[in-house]
Amino acid sequence: MNTLITHTFRLCSRLGLFIFAFPLAAYGLPASSNVPGGVALVPLASTSSSKPQTWLGEQPVLVTADNNLWVAVVGLSLDTAPGSHELRVKIGDETKTQQFTVNPKNYPEQRLTLKDKSKVELSPADLARAEREIAVIKELKRRWRAAEDNDLAFITPVKGQLASRFGLRRFFNGEPRSPHAGLDVAVARGTPIQASAPGVVIAVDDYFFNGKTVFIDHGNGLITMYCHLDRFDVQTGQAVSKGQQLGLSGQTGRATGPHLHWSVILNGAMVDPELFVQP
């Protein structure tokens, strides 16, 4: 269990701050990383057996139980400013704030060369298409579906060579672009891609940048995205189990070679998927 949470649990136990009526978390927690692009695990001292409701700004935040302690699992976007931040926490009829700190982090650079310059220097038609799709994806990322609990111990969707880590500041043909908001795993075209956790498919589509992509809603603001597929094996609205095949890897969209781009979205923020994979 996370050291901070263990310490807080022991302290609260000595002070008699909670009753032992919480459900025990069966699926673990992601690694704690209070940096932009990371996940903050914020203990919520509460005597209530009912799960607290928590928000970061206006976005609801996932709350789970870990060894009789309620914990907010907070996704921190890459543009989160270092410093003090606060959650709004509602417990019963009482609303309060909970402070936590975000530390700075500098990510390395990655420079890529694309032979297809149309993926870098967009035509007016491609730009219009990309902007429409970005708006759709933005809404998917903010989706909230209440669920009883979450399986937070993810499996990797495919085994292969890690080609690009999360958070890299990327340059395509020398031009700066958005930081890399996922993991790239280099695999041969046609390699089966699996769901990292159980959930519901909320989108299956072919996007200009991401290529053929599957979105899975795992509940409580936790979503995964699987990009550059060659083939789909699921459809929108379908419930999937952990390890179920979603499709086959490919090189669709903006890609320099066949690979899987895997992203994890938490309360609307793109976060480091490696934090969810148990060692």
What is the helix tally? 2
Question: What is the CA-atom radius of gyration, in angstroms?
Answer: 20 Å
Integer tally of domains? 2
* Uncertain stretches: 1-26
What is the name of the CATH superfamily of the largest domain? Glucose Permease (Domain IIA)
CATH architecture term of the largest domain = Distorted Sandwich
Mean pLDDT: 86
What is the helix/strand order?
HEEEEEEEEHEEEEEEEEEEEE
Distance, first to last CA: 13 Å
Q: Describe the biggest sheet? A: 10 strands, antiparallel
Secondary-structure content class: mainly beta
Morphology call = globular
> Would you tell me which CATH topology of the largest domain applies?
Glucose Permease (Domain IIA)
- Count of individual beta strands: 20
Determine and state the CATH class of the largest domain: Mainly Beta
Helix content: 10-25%
Name the beta content range.
35-45%
Q: How would you sum up this structure, described in words?
A:
- With 279 residues, the chain is mainly beta.
- It has two domains: 3-102, Sandwich (Immunoglobulin-like); 109-276, Glucose Permease (Domain IIA), CATH 2.70.70.
- It is built from two helices and 20 strands.
- The strands form four sheets. Strands 9, 12, 13, 14, 15, 16, 17, 18, 19 and 20 form a ten-stranded antiparallel sheet that branches. The protein has a four-stranded antiparallel sheet with strand order 3-2-6-7, with no helix packed on it. Strands 1-5-4 form a three-stranded antiparallel sheet, covered by helices on one side.
- Strand 14 (199-207) and strand 15 form a beta hairpin.
- The protein is globular, with a radius of gyration of 20 Å.
- 36% of the residues are buried.
